[in-house]
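Renewal narrative, Specific Aim 1. Our central claim is that a sequence can be written position by position from structural information alone. The example that follows is taken directly from our test logs and has not been curated for this report. It begins with the C-alpha cells describing the chain, in the order in which they were read.
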C-alpha cells in the first residue's frame, strides 16, 4: 500500500481533528475537538507530536505525497506546470499548523 493510501486509511478510522495537547503534568493528554481524551503520553514532545498528526493534518500530508508523485511524473514528461500542484498541496498542509 502506498504511503498516501495508508495515511488516508488511518485518518479515516481516527477521531476527526483538530487535536491538541495539554501539557501540565504526566501523563500528558491529547484531546479531540470536543475535548475528549484521545491519548496519553509520558513525554510532552510525544503528546505534541500525536496532536500535530491529527487526521486533518494526515489527509493534507497524503495530498502532498500525491502531489509530489504527480510532480515527479510531470517533470519527467517536461511539463512546466508541475510546481503549481506541489505548492498548492504544501500551502494546504501549512494552513493546518
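The sequence written for that structure reads:
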Amino acid at each position: 500500500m502506498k504511503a498516501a493510501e495508508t495515511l488516508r486509511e488511518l485518518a479515516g478510522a481516527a477521531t476527526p481533528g483538530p487535536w491538541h495537547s495539554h501539557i501540565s503534568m504526566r501523563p500528558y493528554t491529547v484531546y479531540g475537538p470536543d475535548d475528549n481524551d484521545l491519548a496519553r503520553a509520558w513525554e510532552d514532545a510525544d503528546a505534541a507530536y500525536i496532536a500535530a498528526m491529527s487526521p486533518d493534518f494526515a489527509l493534507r500530508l497524503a495530498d502532498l505525497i500525491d502531489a509530489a508523485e504527480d510532480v515527479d511524473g510531470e517533470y519527467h514528461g517536461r511539463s512546466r506546470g508541475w510546481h503549481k500542484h506541489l505548492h498548492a498541496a504544501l500551502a494546504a498542509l501549512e494552513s493546518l499548523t
